[in-house]
Every structure is written in structure tokens, then in C-alpha cells.
Amino acid sequence: MDTKIGSLDTCPPRNNDICCPSKTTQHSPSQTLTAPEATLGRHLARRLVQMGVSDVFSVPGDFNLTLLDHLLAEPGLNLVGCCNELNAGYAADGYARSRGVGACVVTFTVGGLSVLNAIAGAYSENLPVVCIVGGPNSNDYGTNRVLHHTIGLADFTQELRCFQTVTCYQAVVNNLEDAHEQIDTAISTALKESKPVYISISCNLPAIPHPTFSRDPVPFSLSPKISNQLGLEAAIEAAAEFLNKAVKPVMVAGPKMRVAKACNAFVELADAAGYAMAVMPSAKGLVPEHHPHFIGTYWGAVSTAFCAEIVESADAYLFAGPIFNDYSSVGYSLLLKRERAIVVQPDRVVIGNGPAFGCVLMKDFLKGLAKKIKKNAIAFENYSRIFVPEGQPLKCDPTEPLRVNIMFQHIQKMLSSDTAVIAETGDSWFNCQKLKLPKGCGYEFQMQYGSIGWSVGATLGYAQAVPEKRVLAFIGDGSFQVTAQDISTMLRSGQKTIIFLINNGGYTIEVEIHDGPYNVIKNWNYTGLVDAIHNGEGKCWTSKVFCEEELVNAIETATGPKKDCLCFIEVIVHKDDTSKELLEWGSRVSAANSRPPNPQ
After folding, report:
1. What is the rounded CA–CA span in Å between residue 31 and residue 29?
2. Are 444 and 11 within 8 A, CB to CB?
3. Out of 21, 246, 278, 443, which residue is the most buried by the measure of CB atoms under 10 Å away?
4. In sequence order, what DSSP letters do the residues of 163-232 get, joined into one string?
């Protein structure tokens, strides 16, 4: 059956529950528009609303100003002005993680190349983000003119060429005849492929009426992908035979389950099979951690306690949507054997060293397998036998210098179905990975791309998409210095996020991979900076904490009297206070990075 854009199950949020479709958008029947309304700008605005976007993150520039006027005029659209294009892109990324799709608007080349890094990150994480650029006047195409905001050549394709490798579709709209088709094709491609798209719109076109825009845009239908039925049946039979003869099989969730929309199906299979169930680190939040057979995060040598032992000793493992890169494999050190694995990608299944089945959708495969699998809880029973509850960190005097492991004990108590966690690249990856997410608690981080500073913009976008949740963001001082400005936008938007700025004096994750003086940064007065940005406008509260007693008081204030404020808590910790997981991971990644060249 066909699926309308407004109700497309695009990119469900990580809320530690069974993933569910994003909210549907109701549409009125198509109406004839008067000439002043039948414009390209209005059509684009309507399409964004139809696809589920109600907030667009933007930075104005002379090539996009008229387009911004038309976006502002759309009642269902809110324009969120950001401090720079990079953060606008990161915000669209965070928004898409929660809402299912995001959008940003920047100006030609200087804005486009600035937002490019964020769009590359969205591409790596399979997020449908519509990146809209205000382009040159349509009359300048094909001339030999040199324009400002370019590198001084009469060639307007530099920006386009840069975006071609990090978007799944590019539309350059410089005439009205095919503008309708180009815009609709770009948006539908973003939703179908779950990847970013690029739309450049000439600056003189948004306000011009055209007959193709004379009616309210009709929500168009997207034909869903369908499994090859014969291939699906063969894959299910082969997988069931493979798993049913295993003694202690396990199953592991990977990050591509989100793009495959297979979270429900994975849990159905877990219920039917009784297997021990783990997640890869980049899939945390995609499956419910309160599931009775959940055993934690599988991350090789830095896995949750007793999880790696169960996974790596299994005689069969099903990985759904995995990404095995150098980070997720801890420097290629996982103790897995290909012949024991079933690897299920969004549209392909590989069993052991073969056979392989193409055109088989993950969701269909997992649902079908659940009906054929025999219940086998041996791996989970083994886990239950060897499991020893985690020890508690050594208690410290309430007034002695705060330790990170003590801090996260208190963070754990803050989590509920009304919160979401954003973890910045760095030691926050490892500390947040150990949090036990209650039902409904959101969780996001950017593991594949790992761009430091991502979390500031992503927090802005995520919080804007789900204002009913209190976002808890964990950001290192080095990362914060990259993108700090958009604390300003959070305040303008009335957000109530709690930001924990972990100040340990540098790029700690890089110290553990390869140390040097370049990993030490200039210390800022972070609370003073946020107070200056606040400048008495909006609701903001800051605190600097040095010990457990001060942290407890700060959390009580942030969740009590200041619960409707943006709260910024700077946590001062020792520069060498890191998780044991980062120490292990850093040494293994360092070894992988420093491998000598192969003999020629």
C-alpha cells in the first residue's frame, strides 16, 4: 500500500521503548490559491509542513532572504535563527532524530560549505535532512559573471559538487518550469532513502507566482519497498535452520535498525526466541532496556559487564543492522567469527560465510523468523548465572573533589520517561553508555561521524522537536568550545535543557588515543560565558560545582525551582578522571591507528 508523506514512518526516535511512527500530520483537501499565494516559496513551506517539519533552522544571507520571508509566512512553520550554519545543520540533525525529518536554510557557498560538515554527519547516521540554500539570481547562470560568496570563479557549481557526496539527491532550482517537480522529487527522495538532500533555489524565484503552484500541494504517496517474497522465504528458512541447531544463540541490535524501521520486529523476535539480547553502542536507545532478556551493550573489550563474554562465547549470533567500524569494533579487536554470524542489513541477509539473500527487508525478515524460531534461553540463563551486580564507586566525602563516576550515579536518578540524554563525542560516550534507560527515556549520540561539538546544535534541535521532554546534555569542555554560541538560540527558544559541561581541561578522548600538548585547551569561565550570553533575556540558571555536595544541590535546583529554565551546570573534574572503558578503548584504537604500512 502507499504511504503518505505526513504519516511516513521515517526515523523513529530512540526512546528506549519499541520504536513507533512519528506523529501524523492531517491535511486538508487541495485548494485553489490566489496568484500572490501561488509561489515557489509557499509551495516549499507547505511541503515542509506536510512532511512533519514545524521548525526550520536558519542563518540569513542575502541570497535566501526572500525565501525566508515565505517560510515565515507559513502558519505551520517556525523559523529558528541560529548563530552559525554548522549549528543550524546540527540542529536539523537532532530534530530529525526525534521528529523523523529535519530542515535547515542557509545562503550560497559561504553558508553551504559551512553547513556541509553537519550534513555529512546526518548522511552517516541515515537522517533525512532537507538542506535548502538560497542560490544566485537565475539570470546569472550561464553567464561569465563572478559573484560574491564564491571563490572568485565564474562557476556556480562548487557548492553543488561538495554536496553530491553527502546527500542522496541534489536539486538546483533556477527556473520555475520544473521547480515543482524538483522540490517534490528531492523531498520524497530524502524520505525514501532516509538521507539528506540539497535544494538550491535562485534568490529571485521564491516570490514569483506560477501555474504549477496554483493549488495547495497534495500529499503525494511513496511506494514502500517490498521484499522479494521467494528470497524472503529462503532467507527465513536458512536462518531458522542455522539458529535452531545452535546451543546458545544470542541477538544484537545495531544502529541501522532505525533506518530499516525494524525495532518492533527485533523485539518480537527477542520475545519469540528467548535469546539473550544486547545492543551495539550506537544502537543504545533503539530497543527497550527493561526487556527481560536485555544483557547490556556489546562493545568488545569495553562492553557492559558480562555482556561480551556471553556474545563472544555464543555458537550463533544474529546482528541486526550492525556497523563494524574501527570505533565500534574497539580497534578491530572483536572476538567474533563470521561463520557463526547472521548479519541482517536493511535489505540484505548474510548467513555465516554464505549464503546471502538480497532484496530482503530487515523488518519482514525478523517478523518472519519469529514465527519459525525455536525458543532457546540458554545464553540468557548462562548470563544470569555468571552475572554479578556492579560494584559501587568508593564513597567520597561530600566536600572532596568530585569524581565522574560519582557524578553519573546522581545522573542515573534523574532519568525518566520525561527525559532524553544527548552524549557528546568523548568520555561522555562511555559514561552515558552505562546509564540504564527507563522506559520512554530518549538517547542520542553521533558515533559513526563523531564530530566534536555536534551535541550543542543537536540538543537545540532535539529539544525543539520534543518540548515535553527535559533534555540532559553531557558535553566536554573541548567540544563545547567548538559550538558554544547556540546556547543563545536555546534561550531565545525558551528551552529547558540541563547541560552538564564536564570541565577536565582538554580533549580527554584524544589524550587516551595519543597524548600531546595540542590536547590541552585554554580554560574558559563557562558559567560566566553562559551568563553573558543570557544577558538578562530569557530563563537561565548556571552553577559551577567542585564536589558531590554542590552537584546534589545543583541538580535539586535544576529539577526544582529552576525546572522551567535552561540550566547550565559546569562540573570541575580532574584532567585524568576518565572511565575505565575510555582507557581500554583508547589504547586499542591507538594501536589500530599506529599499525605500520603493509610490506610492498
Report:
1. 6
2. no
3. 278
4. HTTT-S-EEEE-SSTTHHHHHHHHHHHHHHHTS-EEEEEETTSTT-B-GGGSBPPP--EEPPP---HHHH
Q: How far apart are CA 110 and CA 148, in angstroms?
A: 9
Q: How far is CA 339 from the centre of its chain?
A: 32
Q: What SS3 class is residue 509? A: helix
C-alpha cell recorded at residue 154? 565564474
Q: How many helices (H) and strands (E) does the chain have?
A: 21, 21
What residue has cell string 517474497? 229
Nearest to 85 by CA among 126, 54, 119: 119
pLDDT in tens, 399-416: 899 999 999 999 999 999
For residue 19, pLDDT over 90 is answered with no
C-alpha torsion angle, residues 141, 143, 146, 152 (rounded to 10): 80
Closest C-alpha among 440, 581, 503 to residue 13: 440
Q: Which of 45, 61, 37, 53 is nearest to 5 (CA)?
A: 53
Encoded amino acid at 528, one letter? G
Asked if residue 495 lies in contact with residue 488, where contact means CB atoms within 8 angstroms, the answer is no
**Worst-scoring range by mean pLDDT, 272-281, 336-345, 422-431?**
422-431
- Stretch (H or E) spanning 69: helix 65-73
d(CA 117, CA 87): 10
Question: Which pairing describes strands 470-476 and 419-423: parallel, antiparallel, or unpaired?
Answer: parallel
CB burial of residue 272 (10 Å; 0-12, 13-18, 19+): middle
Dist. CA 449–CA 121, nearest whole Å: 5
